Amino acid sequence: MPLLPIAQGGSWYAKDATDTDLLGALNAAYLAGIRHFDTAAGYGNGRSETLLGQFLQGKRESVFLASKSHTDDLTAAAAIAEVEGSLNRLSVDFIDLYYIHWPRAGRDMRPVMEGLETARAQGKIGAVGVSNFSVAQMEQVSEVGSIEVHQLGYNLLWRYAEAEAIPYCLAHDIAVVAYSPLGHGILTGKFGRDPGLMAGDQRHSILPFRADIWPHVHAGVEQMKRLAAELDLPLSTLSIRWILGQVGVNSVVAGGRTKEQVASNAAALEATIPATAFEELADISDAIMAHIPDAGNLFNHYP
């Protein structure tokens, strides 16, 4: 199963982005040579899949397409229905990679995997993946199916996957796709000492923005920004490339709402970066991580 070096995902459920903006971002990604497109049934209650389906008209054969389920009904039948819903919204008859989007703590996820294996046998999906799973949860669903890919949150501000999840994937030949490479915008360096989030901004729930953690995050990112300035590169470029250089990571989902964001993400692949810069980034990251507790995931989301 081919995984390209970088995947164009999407914060496409963002309410402040128009369909024209988002379709323009998709086109910019395609023109930049990106061919792995990642979405989910839950992004914008299906809006993301519908828009991507519009964009893929005439391009489907050249694209590696990934999506994810969004149901709380943890039955095989519901999983198959989720796949069919995604196929309909995407206006395709096959999805290359389909994930179980989130595990449910204390609940048996095996019926969902059984449903996806049935969908695979029916020729509706290719590879089966999981997202945000612990090792124990991966082992559970592996009893009834085969995991090819694990998509997990991983960046310079959130590296807990290095302890168990990534080593497990390496040992079991499971590809790792890292999402949130820019830490919800933090690793672009755009936030000041006061992040200035508006009321209702989903990032209020993101762990690094927590009031007692943010000063340490901000201080570390300021150090990263100085390093980026010395190299005359955007901090986002360093952040994406650092992830792609980590053992066990196969691909990065770098979301973009605008053509400009997509162009910046794609340009990261072409930059020349000295190994010493990656070492310095890791050192700064270590200092930041000392102040970020392992709360399970960046989102404080525990379905």
- How much helicity do the residues have? 25-40%
Widest sheet, order of strands: 1-8-7-6-5-4-3-2
Integer average pLDDT = 92
- Using only C-alpha atoms, the radius of gyration works out to 19 Å
The total number of structural domains is: 1
Number of strands: 8
The H-and-E topology, N to C, reads as: EHEHEHEHEHEHEHHEHH
CATH classification class: Alpha Beta
Shape, principal axes of CA atoms: globular
- Main pleated-sheet profile: 8 strands, parallel
- Uncertain runs are 1-5
Q: Which structural class do the helices and strands define?
A: alpha/beta
Q: What's the total helix number?
A: 10
Termini separation (Å)? 30 Å
* Second-tier CATH architecture: Alpha-Beta Barrel
The name CATH uses for the topology is TIM Barrel
InterPro entries: AKR, AKR_Detox_Biosynth, NAD(P)_OxRdtase_dom_sf, NADP_OxRdtase_dom
Domain NADP-dependent oxidoreductase: 15-284
Keywords: Oxidoreductase
Pfam families: Aldo_ket_red (PF00248)
Describe the structure.
InterPro entries: AKR, AKR_Detox_Biosynth, NAD(P)_OxRdtase_dom_sf, NADP_OxRdtase_dom. Residues 15-284 form the NADP-dependent oxidoreductase domain. Pfam families: Aldo_ket_red. This is NADP-dependent oxidoreductase domain-containing protein. Keywords: Oxidoreductase. This protein has 303 residues and is of the alpha/beta class. The protein has one domain: NADP-dependent oxidoreductase domain (TIM Barrel, Alpha-Beta Barrel). Helix content is 38%, strand content 13%. The chain has 10 helices and 8 strands. It has helices at residues 19-31, 47-55, 76-90, 110-121, 135-142, 165-171, 214-231, 235-244, 259-267, 275-289, and strands spanning 6-7, 36-38, 64-68, 95-100, 125-131, 149-153, 175-179, 249-253. Strands 1-8-7-6-5-4-3-2 form an 8-stranded parallel β-sheet. The longest helix is centred in the C-terminal third of the chain and has 18 residues, at 214-231. The chain starts with 5 loop residues before the first strand and ends in a 14-residue tail after the last helix.
